[in-house]
């Protein structure tokens, strides 16, 4: 098997709202994530003094990051994807002056990573924004939020210009179609007109952040981030082919705008057919010309699409995929398709001709701690092994790939339902869904497996099957 490139960035990925904890510490304001204690698809809950949420402490990364980064370094990480909690920097979102205590935390975090030779890959907005912006300005439904985000982006670019050379704008930006409050700060029952207008504002803001990054940190690279929502046609019937094309375009359009600098023609028909009339100004077209340097994405599963009404009605999960009869599923019903990752890598490179970065990929599973304090997770090793074999195939196909950061290198609170029991990490954290546990860190079997994969540049990967 071909060795992974010597400069390939191996690592892991986590999010502030799922790992940091330190709820409202050091001047932090309420974020939209703080109002979703049951996860991104759960109800929006008003917070009151003295109440609590699992995410309020999460895994206490805010205080324990030196220990965790040392463990990541032991595995050989060259990169760690993290996010900045926007409400730590601008607690209400619309202030002029930033919160110095929030900025100082990320100074310490990036400094600790530098001690271990780990490069930060930083997401500006990962499934959260200051809650006050949704109350005062209507979230991303307001054009004013573009300027607030640009001010935030310019503030952190200027502050961390010497520490951070890889940036992302919005996490899984296409998730706004499935979870409007999480994605764009709109009520869950918002209609298509409101959601796509908010998405437009977010796309303009992303482009302005790209331009600002190029101005303020000229030696940095900034990318977008897509949820890799790939579907195959359920059959070779032409109607199924068109159904899968339409469903894939629903999320690829975000990449088309951010990588090509304009709305694709097929979206103009979609808007016309759906009766959507967006407020797009001449200056917006100019802003969108600032395109990303690379395409990053998450990949967990694939699905199918069908034009047959009875089969389409079977589409399940938040992404509306028809189950693939040829694939197994995880404990949470996510279908496992390693070859889909190779397919997606080739599709994205063929489409955009820009470097790619896999910034999330992993298996959520129920882990058990044995009597001797070990965690044996061969299912996770198998999942990651088989996916990385397909990444190697894509490299042989000629796809330029910057790196791979597995999702959840350490157990954290899951995004979908805010659970600790859905574990992704190479490192076990002693905490349960009720918030009980010591928070002790413990290396799983996969910890040593991933360390060896990194050291060998992929040579320890086992043939599939």
TrEMBL record:
One of its GO terms (molecular function) is hydrolase activity, acting on glycosyl bonds. Keywords: Glycosidase, Hydrolase. Gene3D superfamilies: Glycosidases. It is an enzyme of class 3 (hydrolase). The active site is at 360 (nucleophile). It holds the Pfam family Glyco_hydro_1. InterPro entries: GH (IPR017853), GH_1_N_CS (IPR033132), Glyco_hydro_1 (IPR001360), Glyco_hydro_1_AS (IPR018120). Its EC number is 3.2.1.-. Belongs to the glycosyl hydrolase 1 family. This is Glycoside hydrolase family 1 protein. It comes from Chromobacterium aquaticum.
